[in-house]
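Following up on my earlier message about flavin mononucleotide. Here are the inputs again, as you asked, copied directly from the submission form:
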Amino acid sequence: MKKIGLFYGTNTTKTAAIAKKIKEAFGSVNIDVIAVEDASKKEFESYDNIIVGVSTWFDGELPSYWDEVKPELESLSLEGKKVAVFGLGDQVKYKENFIDGVGILAETFESVGAKVVGFTSVEGYNFENSHARRDDKFMGLAIDTENQSKLTDERVKNWVEQLKKEFD
Ligand SMILES: Cc1cc2nc3c(=O)[nH]c(=O)nc-3n(C[C@H](O)[C@H](O)[C@H](O)COP(=O)(O)O)c2cc1C
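Thanks, got it. Here's what our run produced:
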């Protein structure tokens, strides 16, 4: 598998912790983990396989650094690249906006030519609305450490196995 660039943005470090778990689950696969505030545009374009990690804040908004980087993402050229998105959210307190950040970023990457992979079933979650939902799938992996922390390791493991097949 080609090298993976994992870019994450976090407000209270929970997304960073999941990024670490994902890297561990990939085992010997070559994967660079980069905080999005330290990333340049060129860095995104230098990977064929990209993972992005994002939480959701303030009723459906991106956390601060993804918010700042988004205009720059819109000028990237990512034709032929694969992007997988994971997101953290709280499906009980924010059931109207559960992991909206995943949908916002997935659509942004699609708009610059990337193929978004790593969709997962919405089964097993209980929420009203999500910008990340497309038909019966999330456009990425949904992690809810507030309400379903016991499921996190299994969800990460299954998603990484899926990406090993879907990435180039
Ligand atoms: C003020 C506040 C607003 C939030 N808004 C949302 C939201 O709209 N949707 C959602 O799914 N989760 C929401 N959350 C939950 C966070 O996304 C969740 O706690 C996440 O794990 C934080 O990750 P981070 O520390 O990496 O930023 C919110 C949390 C707080 C404290």
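One observation from looking it over: The first strand starts at residue 4 and ends at 9. Hope that helps, and feel free to reply on this thread.
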